[in-house]
Write a structure and sequence with these properties.
The protein is mainly α. The protein is 79% helix and 0% strand. The protein has 3 helices and no strands.
């Protein structure tokens, strides 16, 4: 049930990103997912390092 709830939460974030920007790139969606779910858990420097790595994928 937990996995299903997480998948639903991811789908809602994706839908939210695509509603705001229908042409969002996969990297932009990954960035939004990271920020929404985990962004608050990292200090600003670490968060930026992770976001740069996400952009390279």
């Amino acid at each position: 049930m937990g996995c299903s709830m997480f998948a639903t939460a991811q789908a809602l974030v994706r839908a939210s990103v695509l509603e705001k920007d229908p042409h969002a790139t996969p990297a932009a969606i990954r960035r939004a997912l990271f920020l929404r779910f985990y962004g608050h858990e990292f200090d600003p420097a670490t968060r930026e390092k992770i976001l740069r790595a996400i952009e390279k994928e």
